[in-house]
Model the fold of this input.
Amino acid sequence: MPLKRNVPEGRKGWKLTACPKCGEPCWETPLFRSIAQSGAIPMCTMCALKKGVQANAAVNTDNGHTRSM
Ligand SMILES: [Zn+2]
Done:
């Protein structure tokens, strides 16, 4: 989900929420609302990026402790 610090102004239909992973304020857009309804957990852009990086590197550092960048 777009982070509020990246996108300070929400658009129509967006709802301010918090990332379930890092707790950063971010926008729940209609797209992510439908993703959530399909059972996936929508996360913020940064967490999605980090998750992708971790998946690609196959590093085993995901022990619930997230470093801030
Ligand atoms: Zn996050």
About this structure: The pocket of zinc ion is lined by residues 19, 21-22, 24, 43-44, 46-47 (CB under 6 Å).
